[in-house]
Design brief:
- The structure is a single chain.
- The chain has 2 domains: about 200 residues, Rossmann fold; about 90 residues, Magnesium chelatase subunit I, C-Terminal domain (Helicase, Ruva Protein, domain 3), CATH 1.10.8.
- Strand 6 and strand 7 form a beta hairpin.
- Helices cover about 40% and strands about 15% of the residues.
- The two termini are about 30 Å apart.
- The longest helix is centred in the C-terminal third of the chain and has 17 residues.
- By secondary structure, the chain is of the alpha/beta class.
- The protein has 13 helices and 11 strands.
- The protein has a 5-stranded parallel β-sheet.
């Protein structure tokens, strides 16, 4: 049963859930606990994730392990230049027997949708996900159809291949709550990974340790995590400063403010707290904001990146000093 709005937040239950799901995913994704934590934050905050990294580091496997761990449906779409919007959201087909159109849902009707190499699809197909990601529904033939809850888009893109790719538009990038990079494993972790897959892949027997209903219950209560006014002002200062930064041609949107707030609350709950600390905000700032900023071309030529600019803001903008614990 899903809690009604206003149900009480149980941070101990959220913390226990986080440890249980993390341990389960670590049977497949070895040595990436902080990455798993970020993914769970996105889940609790009801947001979507952009996985940007080189091939073969486990982006697809992370999505599969996450879906199995929460007992949800997993569907994968390989984005290619000839992929059409209806291939993602579904299509209405005329049923001669009934004399009416019958809707055939696309892979977007799932708990976790993996959009593999999303930047290889045309802008038209990429934009087909905008309504699904932003409003949790799709419109086909003038009729809106709600998506299942929970619903998470995990999209991958390869940052080093540009031939045959279409950059994601700013409007779509802004709908990804987090951008995550897995990175290469440490040698010791890579050794464990090879040993664990010598007979069969651990994903084949990975059990469900939670349920979609349990996750939805937690999502509905994350907003109750206490956030001091001073910390909200700190979040707003971080975001708004990017809008007139001399090295940025596009700063972070108001959606960034909402996302950073929600993610800080989700991380606090995941760590068993019912209040936000400055460390929660700092930990989430780069994953939440980096993909929403556009660095000026002259700054890029000097080697500047969005991540380093955000890091400087975190070091220069004063952190509220009053206690945030209750």
């Amino acid at each position: 049963m899903i809690n009604e709005p206003g149900a009480a937040l149980d941070v101990k239950a959220v913390g226990d859930w986080g440890r249980k799901v993390t341990a389960n995913i670590e049977k497949v994704i070895i040595g990436k606990r902080s990455i798993i934590e970020l993914t769970l934050v996105a889940l609790l905050a009801d947001g979507h994730v952009l996985l940007q990294d080189v091939p073969g580091v486990g982006k697809t496997m992370l999505a599969r392990a996450l879906a199995r761990s929460i007992g949800g449906d997993f569907k994968r779409v390989q984005f290619t230049p000839d992929l059409l919007p209806n291939d993602v959201i579904g299509i209405s087909i005329y049923n001669q027997k009934d004399g009416d159109f019958e809707f055939h849902p696309g892979p977007v009707f799932s708990t976790i949708l993996l959009g593999d190499e999303i930047n290889r699809a045309t802008p038209r197909t990429q934009s087909a996900l905008l309504e699904a990601m932003g409003e949790r529904q799709v419109s086909v033939d003038g009729k809106s159809r709600p998506l299942p809850r929970p619903f998470l888009v995990m999209a991958t893109q390869n940052p080093i291949e540009y031939e045959g790719t279409f950059p994601l538009p700013e409007a779509q990038l802004d709908r990804f709550m987090l951008k995550i990079q897995l990175g290469y494993p440490e040698p010791a972790d890579e050794r464990l990974m090879v040993r664990s897959q010598q007979v069969r892949h651990p994903i084949d027997n990975l059990p469900a340790v939670s349920s979609p209903e349990e996750l939805v219950n937690f999502q509905q209560t994350i907003g109750q995590v206490h956030l001091e006014d001073s910390l909200l002002d700190y979040i707003i200062k971080l975001v708004s400063t990017t809008r007139h930064h001399r090295e940025l041609s596009l700063g972070a949107s108001p959606r960034s403010t909402l996302a950073l707030t929600r993610c800080a609350q989700a991380r606090a709950a995941l760590l068993g707290r019912d209040y936000v600390l400055p460390d929660d905000i700092k930990f989430m700032a780069i994953p939440v904001m980096s993909h929403r900023l556009i660095v000026k071309s002259e700054s890029i030529l000097r080697g500047r990146q969005a991540e380093s600019i955000i890091g400087e803001l975190l070091n220069t903008i004063p952190v509220p000093v009053e206690s945030t614990s209750r």
